[in-house]
Design brief:
heterotrimer; A: alpha+beta; 11 helices; about 35% helix; about 10% strand; B: mainly alpha
């Protein structure tokens, strides 16, 4: 038998046996090591915004999608996605979604720096956490310090410090809750926005009467006038009123307005997107031009004669 | 003793002196592509080390019994077919095909196994496994083993082959992690636009290669030290 | 009905000529796609090995493109990479044996880098992108174009390295004997540095700002003539 023939036959049989053996091994492995993957997870992940903000309580959008597919999470947790996203997720999972409303952050303090009394000159680290630990920075130990921890936490550029008070821009707020988690005094909460503008309690001071007046020009004194006007909606939490947002009905404008008028310190405010009256009031003002960076230096146009 | 010294020298040579990436230029594509962050780079390096060890072991077995000149199986077949004992039936022409087939199959097998039994491990480096099939470093390790199986009197056994694979994989991990560390720092630097990305990475690789050239001659020193120590 | 036919023609992909031209400069495998770095760095310390490697890669690329294009109807999706790889491995074996037979010294010098053509990303990516989807004619043109581009890339790097590193080109002494050979150029660091700098030059040259920068330099030099 010639060498070439035997070599050819041996080579062909070695390759054929190898191919068949590997085919069997890989086929067996495919069945034995099969990992059941829910095909819905990819669809769910595609439906989510992908911002990985953590507002839903899961580490990233992929984690939330996995939890949804396992049925461990509800569809309405994604704040940046909003109602449209929740509906989309519900369609993929084949479940009904209840009418839900977006949650937005609300700062429960409205005292600007000039309204806070007994302020001291603070020379420490310019963060709210440090100032809170040091103490004595301002008279009110419950309210906003205005050093900007919430401003730095917001990825959507929705919260700014204006005159020492953190102020939220409701055009940009998505309700992720980052500012709420950062605030060392816990005065930012997430409120369900059943309408564009919601009434909130704009104070966090738990003291009453003279103690409050000593530290703040506008703080809540705990007189309970609001509770007497709308007892089913407002209850007292210590010396501070709390609105029950489950029962809050934006349609009942009259009763809300009366609460607003009854408060002697004017601590009930409507927050939210600007109302038509507000927009009309500033129409005549001109916005300054946005500053853009111009990276030309003074030597850019010099001709080098080096 | 000789084997032990030989094995240590093979390891040092593969990992440092003749580093797979910086001296032999294999595994450049993942070296440039996956080296932007240290944790992904390290994951890639671990995956490569894992796959290179397994596939080199399998390929060594194939080479030893079927593919090398003078291997047992072709010799037996030739004898049984009544062939002339002076001529040798040499199947080494099949080596490339069999090597790449074994590598591709073992990568697929390893991916399925890791995905089933080690989900957290799969999460960290599972996505790199399919890329590794076309990684030059794996095939290169098998080719180096083949090169050292040509002389029937001085064959590499399983310890040597496995050490080469491990050394190569660890050297690759070292190089890619170093590159990732440097590139993370570079993110904050003002690199000129034409050089951004692959350009500056290659220049850094060149400087790293120059640095690793400093290891030349280390094997001679280690060999002298070990022989005098273990005598 | 007429809309259907025009859309099916459009879906056939780029023509053979487009594929050919694409492969040479616009989608050059080394400078634009950054594939196939391993042989690029390894064999370019002189022109002769670089040209041999380019020829071997061209052979493998064109043959495998033809073969994959001919069997494209039979490919199962999850096995196609394996099929490509085995086809390429066969042709690389043939190329390796041919080189060993006809240019044994060069084959020894190229060493393990000829079998590493199997895992050269250029070939697998062309099989995946072009050959498995289009007719053999287009696949051949794509193969020729990409091989030309690959060869141009290899030759450019090898020219720089050989001239600066040994003063020769294709083995012929080009630079005067007083040229101090930059040994680093023929060693691994030189490969990385040369490729990195040439890559940067190609990146810079393919932007319109490069033309204006050159024009500004020319104008400046002209204004110095007094």
């Amino acid at each position: 038998m010639s060498l070439a023939l035997v070599a050819l036959a041996l080579a062909a049989s070695v390759l054929a046996i190898l191919a068949v053996a590997m085919g069997y091994v890989l086929g067996w492995a495919n069945r034995k090591f099969h990992v059941a993957v829910d095909p819905r997870v990819e669809l769910l992940q595609a439906a989510l915004p992908g911002a990985n903000c953590g507002g839903c309580g899961y580490v990233g959008c992929s984690e939330y999608a996995a939890a949804l597919a396992e049925g461990k999470a509800t569809v309405g947790l994604c704040a940046p996605g909003g109602g449209g996203c929740a509906q989309h997720l519900a369609d993929i999972l084949g479940i009904e979604v209840q009418e839900s409303c977006p949650y937005r952050a609300v700062v429960h303090c409205s005292a600007h720096a000039y309204q806070r009394l007994q302020r001291a000159q603070y020379e420490g680290e310019p963060t709210c956490v440090s100032a809170n630990l040091v103490g004595g920075v301002q008279g009110c130990t419950y309210g906003c310090l205005g050093l900007g921890d919430c401003f730095r936490a917001c990825q959507y550029d929705a919260i700014q410090i204006v005159d020492g008070l953190s102020t939220i821009d409701y055009d940009k707020c998505v309700g992720c809750g980052a500012c709420s988690r950062t605030c060392p005094r816990n005065i930012i909460t997430l409120v369900p926005f059943k309408a564009e503008r919601m009434m909130v309690v704009a104070c966090s001071n738990q003291d009453t009467a003279a103690d409050v007046r000593a530290v703040c020009e506008v703080g809540c004194i705990g007189c309970q006038a609001c509770v007497r006007v709308a007892p089913e909606l407002i209850s007292m939490d210590g010396a501070l009123p709390a609105i029950n947002y489950d029962l809050y009905n934006p349609e009942e404008a009259e009763s809300l307005k009366s609460v607003l008028e009854k408060c002697p310190r004017k601590r009930y405010v409507f927050v939210g997107k600007p109302s038509p009256e507000d927009l009309a009031a500033v129409e005549h003002e001109e916005l300054p031009e946005a500053v853009t960076a111009d990276f030309k230096t003074t030597v850019d146009d010099t001709e080098w004669r080096g | 003793m000789e084997t032990l010294i030989g094995v240590v020298l093979i390891f040092i040579s593969a990992a440092l002196i003749n580093n797979f990436v910086l001296h032999y230029f294999v595994g450049i594509c993942p070296f440039l592509g996956v080296s932007r962050r240290v944790d992904t780079a390290f994951g890639m390096g671990c995956a490569v080390t894992f796959v290179i060890s397994i596939s080199t072991m399998l390929n060594w077995a194939f080479t030893s019994f079927i593919l090398r000149p003078g291997a047992p199986l072709p010799a037996w077949v030739w004898r049984t077919a009544g062939g002339n004992p002076q001529t040798q039936l040499d199947l080494s022409v099949l080596s490339y095909i069999i090597y790449i087939f074994i590598i591709a199959s073992s990568v697929q097998f390893v991916e399925m196994y890791v995905r089933k039994f080690f989900p957290p491990l799969y999460k960290s480096f599972g996505v790199f496994l399919p890329l590794i099939t076309t990684n030059c470093a794996i095939l290169f390790a098998s080719l180096e083993v083949f090169k050292h199986m040509q002389d029937p009197t001085n064959l590499w056994g399983l310890p040597q082959a496995l050490t080469l694979a491990l050394g190569g994989g660890i050297g690759f991990t070292l190089a890619i992690s170093l590159m990732a560390g440097i590139r993370e720092e570079l993110d904050l630097c003002d690199v000129p636009r034409p050089l951004q990305g692959a350009g500056i990475a290659l220049i850094i690789a060149g400087i790293m290669a120059m640095a690793f050239m400093g290891f030349t001659g280390v094997d001679k020193g280690v060999e002298t030290a070990l022989t005098s120590l273990l005598r | 009905m007429s809309e259907k036919t025009t859309s099916s023609v459009d879906r056939a992909g780029p023509t053979a000529l487009e594929r050919f031209i694409n492969g040479v400069l616009p989608e050059n495998p080394i400078y634009r796609q950054l594939l196939g770095m391993c042989p690029t760095l390894a064999v370019t310390n002189a022109m002769k090995p670089a040209v041999t490697m380019a020829a071997a890669t061209a052979f493998v690329l064109i043959c495998s493109n033809i073969m994959v294009s001919l069997i494209r109807g039979l490919l199962k999706p999850h096995l196609r990479i394996l099929v490509f790889t085995l086809t390429i491995a066969t042709f690389v074996t043939i190329a390796d044996r041919l080189l060993a037979a006809y240019v044994y010294d060069m084959s020894k010098q190229l060493g393990p880098y000829v079998p590493l053509i199997i895992v050269n990303c250029v070939i697998i990516s062309r099989a995946e992108i072009c050959a498995s989807k289009q007719t053999p004619g287009v696949a051949i043109a794509d193969g020729i174009g990409m091989s030309l581009g690959f060869g141009i890339g290899l030759a450019s790097i090898a020219t720089v390295r050989e001239l600066l590193g040994s003063g020769t080109w294709f083995g012929l002494h080009v630079l005067p004997a007083t040229w101090p050979n930059w040994g680093i150029m023929v060693l691994p660091p030189g490969a990385f540095l040369t490729l990195g700098l040439l890559l940067a030059i190609v990146e810079w040259g393919t932007r319109r700002r490069a033309a204006s920068a050159i024009w500004r330099t020319v104008r400046m030099l002209w204004s110095w003539r007094h």
